[in-house]
Amino acid sequence: MDRVRMLAAALGVILWVPAAARGEDLKAIAKHVIEQGFNRGDFATIDELFSPTYIGHHSTSPDLRGSEEVKQRAMLFRTAFPDGQCTVEDMIREGDEVAMRFTCRGTHRGPYLGRAPTGKSVTITGITIVRITDGNIQEGWVMVDTLGLLQQLGMLPTLEQTQKTAPAKNLSRRGAGSPKLVSHLGTVSKKSETPKPHRRTLA
Predict the structure, then answer these.
(1) What is 18-158's CATH number, 3.30.2290.10, 3.10.450.50, 3.50.50.60, 3.40.50.1220?
(2) Going by DSSP bridges, is the β-strand pair 136-144/97-107 parallel, antiparallel, or unpaired?
């Protein structure tokens, strides 16, 4: 097919490609970045598929600009989790955009955000949307469960840990046995009682 396209380009012929086929091509490009760039550490793939003017919008970090910053992010992942593998769970294409839901699994064997290797196995989930034109990824939106990752590495407490260590905030539990509170409430109650009228006794 590539030879046909090259010949057609040389002859100035425009090939008609069905919309469904174009959609599959876009999904293949998006998936190729995950499988080659992140799973295998083939950073040349990132240079090949990302536009020099690429902008990546991330939920927990400043925007990434250009393929070089994308490679730095991929290197960070590969350094911290050398055996990391990401699996594309779902893919949806709409126009020139492809959405992917993915799950990454790996072992923390390298430094990550100042955290020394823990040897812990982690699971990271996320969703990314990429806009692809002319065979290049022009823009992306990425949301990753960074909170869950930091909790798995012991860098942040889990919800269960927080609930166990947090002081009780329920007034009935905190004040029911407080002598000062009981005394205060009793004083207020006595002061708020309606005074009884004074009865005069006739002699």
Answers:
(1) 3.10.450.50
(2) unpaired
